[in-house]
Amino acid sequence: MAFLSDNLARVKPSPTIAMTNRAAELRAQGHDIIGLSAGEPDFDTPDHIRQAGKDAIDAGRTRYTAVDGTPSLKRAICDKFQRENGLDYTPAQITVGTGGKQILFNALLATLNPGDEVIIPAPYWVSYPDMVLLGGGSPVIVPCDIDSGFRLTPEALTQAITPRTKWVILNSPSNPSGAGYDADQMRALTDVLLQHPDIWILSDDIYEHLVFDGFRFVTPAQIEPRLKDRVLTMNGVSKAYAMTGWRIGYGAGPETLIRAMAKLQSQSTSNPCSISQFAAEAALTGPQDYITDSRAVFQRRRDLVVAGLNACPGITCPTPQGAFYVYPSIRDLIGTTSAAGTRIENDEAFANALLDEQGVAVVFGAAFGLSPHFRISYATSDAQLTQAIDRIRAFCEGCH
């Protein structure tokens, strides 16, 4: 009898975490490493949010809460959806989890049966396919290359749909590409989904507020209200408010789905951290100027990185609409050899050689389902980014 579950053999460790850990190990050994692999804002959580957490501790709000969120936080989330997205939800249609990842995981685990398919545009966040596999479903990967702007087209969506399709996952702006769907592009997708009444939509909106150049964020249930009863809209406080470690995500959807997710959560983690919930409430109801200020910083960094990478031989870097990532192509470097003699056979070899030879940690494109690319997170200082670009340029110039 095998000790480990067969389900575990279906999934792989997170490549982004693996690269971050490898960079940390090299740094601990004394190497000069610039880490551009982790998707985490480098700013402190705003003062009023931290104070709300401290106040909650001092007030003794350290006990169990309702399994999937306090009533006051759920009310604040309802208000957020109405204020920012024009969507009406009741607290019974809201669930709160330990980060956005748990919301996605709960939804998939609560709904998937063997043989169910989930359409996932690539490049994708590394955890989507593995969550589907853990839920017993089958990920259907739809490549969305650089020529499509890394966006799913209605034609590609239509071709991917089968009688077994249960979910479509949409992430805008995207991790890893930063690509966003404008209103017309999103409507083209929802028009397709209106024709398939048994398909549900999982909308990952975690980067909603990190959009640039006047890009207007939209979410599927907002664009097409007739789909609202089969949309789960996921969001959270991690990226918008620099609260990654607080671990609060939330979702809004039909009560039947929300109750099923709560049932699952009641037998797994139970409630999210009580202190974090009160801090998240302060984030959603308090001053929002932090978002505007941080967005301006991220846009400046994006422009710095895009310009720098496009000046590197063999790299083509599109300008993303949002998030804090770029996803450049290294197609012209495949088949070359680095200055230290490493054959660049694919984007994983590129990323490993870049780390070993220049001390820059990035994540290879195959981890996100679309090669030959790599992802850079520019959620770090301008000085670090400038130095990293210089090292990447030197690496590329050494390839022959």
TrEMBL record:
Record carries keyword Metal-binding: no
Keywords per UniProt: Aminotransferase, Pyridoxal phosphate, Transferase
Enzyme nomenclature, EC number: 2.6.1.-
Domain of life: Bacteria
Catalysis: reaction(s): L-aspartate + 2-oxoglutarate = oxaloacetate + L-glutamate
A single GO BP: amino acid metabolic process
Similarity section: Belongs to the class-I pyridoxal-phosphate-dependent aminotransferase family.
Keyword Transferase found: yes
Family matches, as PANTHER family: ASPARTATE AMINOTRANSFERASE
Protein name (database record): Aminotransferase
Domain Aminotransferase class I/classII large, first and last residues per copy: 32-392
GO molecular function: L-aspartate:2-oxoglutarate aminotransferase activity; pyridoxal phosphate binding
Cofactor: pyridoxal 5'-phosphate
Signal peptide range in chain numbering: none
Oligomeric form and interacting partners: Homodimer.
Taxonomic lineage: Bacteria, Pseudomonadati, Pseudomonadota, Alphaproteobacteria, Rhodobacterales
